[in-house]
Amino acid sequence: MKLERHSKIVELIGKYQIGTQEELAEYLNKEGYNVTQATVSRDIRELRLSKVAGEDGKQHYVVLQNQENFNDKYIRILKDGFLNMDMAQNILVIKTVSGMAMAVAAALDELHFHEIVGCVAGDNTIMCAVRSVDDTIIVMDKLKKLTAD
């Protein structure tokens, strides 16, 4: 149950800009998880969630997974291999430098974007199955920010 709840928390904070424990508890309760603010507080600590300022200036929770150890390496791989991307409904097609698709797909997998179900890579093309059309747009925005110089 805890693992499912943690997965739902990551999904919710990826989908909505949730700024307080109470707000997160409300979303979880709407999703059928009977939680208290104390439970949410423990979950936030265990998931190592951080707060960052959104575009509107308000703070909201985000997942910074192994930020200090791995993300820089994976972001560097994304920047080195990424050329462009396009979407076809909930499929994201990413073009890479020749021979880099597998490395870029592995980097995407390790960044654990909850919106991405999985990736298939060839030599210079990656097809990512994304949960929904809206999530595809979210992933494209994340990738634009990560690969921008």
Protein traits:
149 residues; alpha+beta; two-stranded antiparallel sheet; elongated
Rounded to an integer, what's the Rg over CA atoms? 16 Å
N-end to C-end Cα span: 41 Å
Order of strands in the sheet with the most strands?
Answer: 3-4-6-5
Helix amount: 40-55%
| Number of alpha- plus pi-helical segments | 6
Low-confidence stretches: none
- What value does the average pLDDT take? 88
Number of strands: 6
The helix/strand order is HHHEEHEEHEEH
Class by alpha and beta content: alpha+beta
Task: Report the β-strand fraction as a percent range.
Answer: 15-25%
Largest sheet: 4 strands, antiparallel
Q: Which assembly state applies to the chains in this document?
A: single chain
Please tell me what the overall shape is: elongated
Pathway: Amino-acid biosynthesis; L-arginine biosynthesis [regulation]
Family: Belongs to the ArgR family.
Domain Arginine repressor DNA-binding: 2-68
Protein name: Arginine repressor
Helix-strand layout with pairing:
Elements lengths: L1 H14 L5 H10 L6 H11 L1 E5 L5 E5 L3 H15 E7 L2 E6 L4 H11 L4 E6 L3 E6 L2 H15 L2
Antiparallel strand pairs: 1-2, 3-4, 4-6, 5-6
Structure, explained:
It is a single chain. This protein is an alpha+beta fold and 149 residues long. It has helices spanning 2-15, 21-30, 37-47, 67-81, 101-111, 133-147, and strands at residues 49-53, 59-63, 82-88, 91-96, 116-121, 125-130. The mean pLDDT is 88. 51% of the residues lie in helices and 23% in strands. The strands form two sheets. Strands 3-4-6-5 form a four-stranded antiparallel sheet. It has a two-stranded antiparallel sheet with strand order 1-2. Helix 2 crosses helix 3 (37-47). The protein is elongated, with a radius of gyration of 16 Å. The chain is built from six helices and six strands. Belongs to the ArgR family. Regulates arginine biosynthesis genes. InterPro entries: Arg_repress, Arg_repress_C, Arg_repress_C_sf, Arg_repress_DNA-bd, WH-like_DNA-bd_sf, WH_DNA-bd_sf. Residues 2-68 form the Arginine repressor DNA-binding domain.
